[in-house]
Design brief:
There is one protein chain. The protein is mainly alpha-helical. The chain has helices at about 65-85, 95-110, 115-130, 135-140, 145-150, 160-165, 175-180, 180-185, and strands spanning about 35-45, 50-55. It has eight helices and two strands, in the order ββαααααααα.
Length: about 200
């Protein structure tokens, strides 16, 4: 079993290394009032090309597991960075690569000491809320190996994305071998796959 850093209550926020003028591709419309979590990046004048972030949760998640909220915040922060062009280099220049990167991020965030059944439950709940196909957490986490850990890439890497879904010239990776249907979903051109499912308003009497 691979080692992992201690869990933190603060999700890993993607950092901009080369800010760009606009999004790499149009992002699907988001109703902020129904989004599970919203992350807004703000330029941080204290650091060159630095960013800080405002984080907001939907009120219906007030009593949800802290670990689940951590995953949803990380997912929104990730997509925000993709849409703004901060994460635009290969292999994150395709929808499939972006979703594979998100899967690795979520798997990395769940690498902390806990009951495996709890971790798998959080994983499945997050995938459902992010409109992802059902996938084995073990399959994804194997794509974050000791080489990644040696370079402090606990939440995925370009190498991990390629291991998971292959390359443009040789698509597939371990995902297609394990589940061709899930692979097709991840590689789909639908803009909604991987994006948070809007929360339903609370029922009224």
């Amino acid at each position: 079993m691979c080692s992992a850093p201690p869990a933190s209550t603060t999700p890993s926020i993607p950092r901009a290394t080369s800010p760009r003028a606009g999004p790499t591709r149009p992002a699907p419309p988001v109703d902020l009032a129904s989004a599970p979590a919203v992350v807004r990046y703000i330029p941080d004048p204290r650091v060159k090309d630095g960013l800080s972030a405002d984080v907001m949760f939907h009120a219906t998640l007030a009593h949800s597991a802290q670990e689940l909220k951590r995953l949803l915040v990380a997912a929104d922060a990730y997509w925000r960075a993709v849409d703004l062009g901060y994460l635009a280099d290969a292999p994150l220049d395709t929808r499939g690569g972006q979703r594979a990167g998100l899967l690795l991020l979520l798997a990395g965030l769940l690498e902390f000491p806990a009951d495996p059944n709890l971790l798998d439950g959080l994983w499945e709940q997050a995938l459902d809320m992010l409109r992802m196909p059902r996938l084995s957490r073990s399959l994804v986490r194997r794509c974050i190996d000791e080489e990644d850990h040696a370079q402090s890439n606990y939440y995925g890497s370009a190498r991990g994305v390629i291991a998971l879904i292959g390359t443009a010239d040789a698509p597939g990776g371990v995902l297609k071998e394990a589940s061709p249907v899930a692979f097709d979903d991840i590689m789909s051109d639908s803009p909604e796959v991987g994006r948070a499912r809007p929360l339903k308003p609370p029922a009224t009497a």
